[in-house]
Design goal:
six-stranded mixed β-barrel
Length: 412
């Protein structure tokens, strides 16, 4: 063991005359550990939110959509066949996307209407896992059944078996003027995916019924695809457009770009802001080492007179600061990972103990705190903490290496 390391380790132990310095060292270590722990937990929660938002949106949306220049497809079967021949495509389903207004005795609501083939839709979306009542399979051609989002059904006061009117914006020209197209539908089910835009504003009807109501004939709005890996959606879209240049493809990241971008920006900003906590904690390392250098003036002078070069003195105090940084970082990483892995248990316990809910479902899209620990986030935080702690040791250690032995021992 090099004597610089041995002396540096010895200086970390508390003695009667420098216990205050040791106490400041512990505070510095605790500050670094707290900063690292908080940063890891926050990044893990942001990762969880990002995954949860993506999962809920893709539960009702699709990984990739293909449509024609005018927003319609004439021969969707051939498009679905070509797309399904791609190895990375799991399933394909046609759809009709349109706007409408639902009317009941309780009022009227504007909605997004989606015409689907139930057997195909179940392979590209997760409605079956989120049905509150009824089933998507209850949608049959010419039966004019409709499946509503739970919040939408609640606002309309519609229950299973109730009749509601769907008004299409395309009108019928009569001698009396343009009359809106109106058809009565029967509620056959409701779903709750936990995504407000869908739960409060989406209605599903059979593809054939949508084609009749919106006068599309055999046309559809496009084909929805589910992929093996959702992160390959943009690549697969480019490949399909190369095979079918007359069509357009857009992936899931473009369906709600502002939402996905907002989550990513928030994660970056939280990372920058919380990194400042670690930076503040490292300032305590500077003050600790400055006081230690002042306290150890005579020791430094004796080492210098025994032949220790300035570089060795610098290493001694770098070791002291590095120990604080390494131990604080290790404690923070262990505590942060353990807390991040158990957020979904700890938060409900705190809510029960305090008697209120942190994230109310009436206000927030996701009422729980999901957490997802990423190794690259943990390593990044640990490296930043160690680098900042090391940089904090440089100036006090350099000052120690410049101590003049004659000046230090003059009054000893």
């Amino acid at each position: 063991m090099h004597y610089e390391l041995m002396v540096g380790l010895r200086y970390t132990r508390a003695k009667r005359r420098n216990r205050f310095i040791s106490f400041i060292s512990l505070i510095s270590m605790a500050g670094i550990a707290l900063g690292v722990m908080v940063l890891i937990v926050v990044l893990s929660v942001m990762n969880g939110f990002q995954t949860e938002v993506r999962t809920r949106i893709l539960g009702v949306a699709s990984h990739l959509q293909i449509s024609g220049p005018a927003g319609t497809l004439d021969d969707w079967q051939s498009v679905a066949r070509i797309a399904s021949s791609t190895p990375r495509v799991v399933a394909a389903a046609p759809y009709v996307q349109a706007q409408g207004m639902l009317s009941s005795d309780r009022g009227a609501r504007g909605v997004a209407v989606r015409g689907v083939l139930p057997e195909a839709e179940q392979r590209v979306a997760d409605f079956a896992e989120h049905m509150v009542s009824g089933s998507v399979d209850a949608l049959q051609p010419d039966a004019f059944g409709i499946v509503l989002g739970a919040d939408l059904a609640r606002s309309l006061g519609a229950l299973a078996g109730d009749k509601i009117a769907l008004i299409a914006p395309q009108g019928i020209i009569t001698p009396a003027g343009v009359v809106p197209r109106l058809k009565q539908f029967t509620v056959v089910g409701t779903f709750d995916v936990g995504f407000n835009e869908a739960d409060s504003g989406l209605a599903l009807i059979h593809l054939a019924d949508a084609q009749k109501l919106y006068q599309l004939g055999d046309q559809v709005s496009g084909v929805r695809l589910k992929l093996q890996d959702l992160f390959e959606a943009r690549t697969v879209g480019r490949e399909l457009m190369a095979q079918m240049p007359e069509l357009f493809a857009w992936d899931w990241s473009r369906s709600h770009p502002n939402l996905f971008r907002a989550v990513q920006i928030e994660k970056r900003m939280m990372f920058i802001i919380l990194t400042l906590i670690i930076a503040v904690a490292t300032f305590n390392v500077v003050s600790t080492l400055v006081m230690l250098v002042t306290d150890k003036q005579s020791d430094i002078a004796i080492l210098r007179t025994l032949g220790a070069p300035p570089a060795s003195i610098l290493k001694i105090f770098v070791v002291q600061g590095a120990i604080i940084g390494v131990l604080g970082t290790l404690l923070g990483v262990v505590g942060g990972v353990l807390l991040a892995l158990n957020v979904e248990t700890v938060v409900p316990a705190l809510e029960t103990a305090l008697g209120f809910k942190f994230l109310s479902k009436d206000v927030y899209l996701i009422p729980d705190l999901p957490s997802e620990v990423h190794l690259d986030d943990v390593l990044t935080v640990a490296v930043i903490s160690l680098v900042l702690a090391f940089l904090a040791t440089l100036y006090p250690s350099w000052r120690a290496s410049k101590v003049n032995p004659a000046e230090a021992l003059r009054y000893e």
